[in-house]
């Protein structure tokens, strides 16, 4: 597929996930403006410092130049797409009400501004925490395996609830304006610097990782997921699980005595039903929809890299 180069406003690009997604999108040839309250240490991407919980700042962030120039050589242009990552990424970083305000108002302002400015593609960072297990009060089961986008979302916490509110607002605006809004339910994001440490924990203590649904999102593949969404038009409002292909431990691997992903899940979640049979190493959160509808292909599978880097 030949890739269309686009002008993209990326919110929250100075953060853990955004900085890697941006560098991957640059590899794909896109021009990017980062909108964040803190700067990004990327010499090729200008950061407009803006607080998107303020509607006027959000609106202006989506309707300005892409860099500082004297004079401005390029005319103002409407961006082709907005990728919205800015927000508070988990509970307990701020009081619940402040997290909820920032995440819901920030996303509302970006969605509304983008639609009213005529931007036709919006990609939003939602979360697999919406399935209600990650930040539950106590031990809760997933409704079924593999967890697809139809799985009930029953969170108890303010963070996941703020993401569900964002998805609902997105659905309304997509209907009203006839634009594409793709909500990505992202798993635990693993940046390159944390890869070894995280996969050591995932593989050495597999039973611990129910809150992550034994699934992960490679930070650079998240950029590839954004690229897949940018290149696919006309789907209207959609929700996609945005995770990598495989389960985060050796359940389906070569380790003697271990079974496949399904057998592992039956051992750790004996009461949870299966709605279809799973691939031997398939991630419990299914990315099938993203692969089928957006054509996403993972570039950074964990297994070979983990083994290779251990040698
Ligand atoms: N990290 C994960 O494992 C994970 C998993 C699922 C979903 N997500 C979602 O992905 C997105 C990015 O997560 P992250 O881990 O990179 O978080 P992060 O905290 O590292 O980055 C978020 C960025 O948003 C910026 N920001 C916060 N409030 C802002 C505001 N009012 N105006 C402008 N910028 C603001 C911050 O300065 C920061 O640079 C978030 O929406 C998060 O909920 C993250």
Q: What's the arrangement of secondary structure elements?
A:
Blueprint: E1 7-11, H1 16-27, E2 31-36, E3 46-49, H2 55-61, E4 81-84, H3 96-116, E5 121-127, E6 144-145, H4 158-177, E7 180-186, E8 188-190, H5 195-204, E9 216-218, H6 219-231, E10 237-242, H7 261-268, E11 273-274, H8 288-294, H9 302-310
Parallel strand pairs: 1-2, 1-4, 2-3, 4-5, 5-7, 6-11, 7-10, 8-9
Helix pairs in contact: 1-6, 2-3, 3-4
Bound molecules: nicotinamide-adenine-dinucleotide.
The site of nicotinamide-adenine-dinucleotide has 23 residues, from helix 1, helix 3, strand 5 and strand 8.
Task: Explain the overall architecture.
The relative contact order is 0.14. It is globular, with a radius of gyration of 19 Å. It has nine helices and eleven strands. The chain has a single domain, classed as NAD(P)-binding Rossmann-like Domain (Rossmann fold), CATH 3.40.50.720. The protein has 311 residues and is an alpha/beta fold. The strands form three sheets. The chain has a seven-stranded parallel β-sheet, with helices on both faces. A two-stranded parallel ribbon has the order 6-11. Bound molecules: nicotinamide-adenine-dinucleotide (NAD). Nicotinamide-adenine-dinucleotide binds at residues 12, 14-18, 36-38, 51-53, 85-87, 89, 102, 106, 125, 127, 186, 188-189. This is NAD-dependent epimerase/dehydratase-like protein.
